[in-house]
Amino acid sequence: MQIYLDYSATTPPRQEVITAMQDVLTASWGNPSSLHEWGQRAATLVERARMQVASLINALAESIIFTSGGTEADNLAILGVAQHYRTPQHIVISSVEHSAIAEPVRLLEQWGWDVTRLPVNLHGRVNPIDLENALRPNTVLVSVIYGQSEVGTLQPIHTLGQIARAHGVLFHTDAVQVAGRLPIDVQQLPVDLLSISSHKIYGPQGAGALYVRPDVELVPMMLGGGQELRLRSGTQAVPAIAGFGVAAELAAAELATETPRLIGLRERLFEQLADTRNLIPTGDRLHRLPHHVSFSVVGGGQNVTGKTLVRQLNLAGVGISAGSACHSGKLSPSPILLAMGYSDAIALGGIRLTLGRETTAADVDWTAMVIKQVLERLMPLQLVASR
Question: Of 69, 163, 211, 276, which residue is most buried, by most CB within 10 angstroms?
Answer without folding.
Answer: 211
